[in-house]
From TrEMBL:
Listed GO CC annotations: plasma membrane
Swiss-Prot/TrEMBL keywords: Membrane, Transmembrane, Transmembrane helix, Transport
Membrane-spanning intervals of the chain: 24-45, 65-82, 89-108, 114-135, 147-167, 173-194, 206-226, 232-255, 276-299, 305-327, 339-358, 364-390, 411-430, 436-455
Taxonomy, superkingdom: Bacteria
Translocase found in the keyword field: no
Name by which UniProt lists this protein: MFS transporter
Organism field: Bifidobacterium eulemuris
Membrane protein topology class: Multi-pass membrane protein
PANTHER family: MAJOR FACILITATOR SUPERFAMILY MULTIDRUG TRANSPORTER MFSC
Localization: Cell membrane
GO MF annotation list: transmembrane transporter activity
Keyword Membrane recorded: yes
Length: 457
């Protein structure tokens, strides 16, 4: 059966699409929600446990119940977006996120809350890759698309900083508000959904073997990384999960190479720009989430600061993130993709090296300064690389391309916390763990920077 590309409905003229800010607003709001719910719940966990019961294991599942299906289903959701239309899958994902937020807000037991969190992860996986496709479909002009990707990245950057702050503010009122805050945002997104342009969809047979193997591979790998951060990477459980995930990944690649209509066409990886973009997404998320994890541990455990104060110390990184996400697309339009990417990676390396040199002698003020520098570097990288990923593929493959990029980012965030956490547990002092972790991240980014010098301008 040949692949057929059809429109889901009549598309609006390009000029009308270009004049509207609604598509970029809903896409960035969705990215904000998906990132917010990774972090906002952490400060509420002790209070939730006191009211709903459950020990440390239950608290862990409140977190992992969201992150595991989120990461494991991204590739599947990206393939579905290309098959059934990004706009449709975006709307279904937002509706699931809304329903799950209601369940979590009114949860009366820990199992009910965990079930809601799992459904929330499914919804986030469905709308995040589709949000990139929404931008591509509504802003076909490359320069407008680059600027729109800047606002999209801003949503994720703001979520990364405001999550702990909102968690610290809302939890004392009632823990349910950390989930209830999602509800009006989801309602607004769904109300604006009809204003988006129509999506293309690809009429191809459903790749059941590929979908199942992708789910098993990502579930095993991500589950192993999550448990590795808790149990250590020599634990038989962790080794078993990682081995299972890697075996499923090998089978997935074998099947996709021979499939007539693969869910993830492997020819997408022939592009050097695509391969480097995925490596960048993995590396800078390892570095950023590892930085937030270590700096938060330093501020709370070593300096004895409250969670709210810790969140406020990261405000400079939010400001820097806003500056970077809004300015990087314009720099890319003027000088090419390579310039903001190299500048951003260099800033991240500078900030990480400075923190490695000072270790636990950083002090709260310098934590804010250097995490701001790292955050600024991240925000310079995200929009141009995201736009580059979309330029590497045909329009009808933008869903799976976005899913591949976001999967690398999600695995990077999980890997950063797991690796840095393992170093904290294994090295004799927290100071040594900080220095080794930050130096390792800086070295990894240096390799990615070298590879990025050959990116398409």
């Amino acid at each position: 059966m040949s692949t057929t590309i059809i429109e889901t409905s009549a598309a609006a003229p390009s000029s009308a699409r270009s004049a509207s800010h609604i598509p970029v607003f809903v896409a960035s709001a969705a990215f904000f929600l998906s990132g917010l719910d990774v972090l906002i719940v952490n400060l509420a966990l002790p209070t939730i446990s006191q009211e709903l019961g459950g020990g440390v294991s239950a608290q862990q599942w409140v977190v992992d119940g969201y992150t595991l299906p989120f990461a494991a289903l991204l590739l599947t959701a990206g393939g579905l977006a290309d098959r059934f239309g990004a706009k449709r899958m975006f709307g279904i994902g937002c509706a699931l996120f809304l329903a799950s937020s209601v369940i979590c807000t009114f949860a009366v037991s820990m199992p009910m809350l965990i079930a809601g969190r799992c459904l929330m992860g499914v919804g986030a996986a469905m709308f995040l890759p589709s949000s990139m496709s929404v931008i591509r479909e509504n802003y076909p002009d490359p320069k407008e698309q680059a600027v729109a990707m800047g606002y999209w990245g801003l949503g994720g950057a703001v979520a990364g900083v405001t999550g702990p702050i909102l968690g610290g503010v809302l939890t004392p009122i009632h823990w349910s508000l950390v989930f209830g805050i999602n509800i009006p945002v989801c309602v607004l997104i769904l109300a604006l959904l009809p204003r988006l342009s129509a999506s293309q969809r690809k009429e191809t047979p459903f790749d059941w073997p590929g979908q199942i193997l992708a789910l098993l591979a990502l579930g095993g790998v991500v589950g192993g990384l999550i448990e590795g951060g808790e149990l250590g990477f020599v634990s038989p459980t962790v080794i078993g999960l990682l081995a299972f995930g890697l075996a499923a990944l090998a089978a997935f690649l074998f099947v996709e190479r021979r499939a007539t209509h693969p869910m993830m066409p492997l020819h997408l990886l022939r592009s050097y720009d695509m391969r480097v973009s995925l490596a960048i997404g993995l590396a800078f998320m390892i570095s950023w989430y590892g930085t937030v994890f270590l700096c938060t541990s330093l501020l709370q455990n070593e300096y004895g600061l409250s969670p709210l104060v810790c969140g406020l110390i990261f405000v400079p990184s939010a400001v820097c993130g806003a500056i970077g996400n809004l300015s990087a697309p314009r720099i890319a339009n003027m000088f090419g993709t390579r310039v903001p990417v190299l500048a951003g990676l260099a800033l991240m390396i500078l900030g990480l090296a400075a923190m490695a040199a000072l270790g636990t002698h950083l002090g709260a003020v310098l934590v804010g300064v250097f995490s701001g520098i790292v955050g600024l570097g991240c925000s310079f990288v995200t929009p141009p690389v995201s736009a580059l990923v979309l330029r590497c593929v045909d329009p009808h493959e933008s869903g799976i391309a976005g899913a591949m990029f976001n999967t690398s980012r999600q695995i990077g965030s999980t890997l950063g916390i797991a690796i840095f956490g393992s170093l904290v547990a294994s090295l004799p002092t927290f100071d040594a763990a900080m220095r080794v972790s930050f130096l390792t991240a800086a070295a990894m980014l240096t390799l990615v920077l070298a590879a990025s010098t050959r990116l398409d301008r």
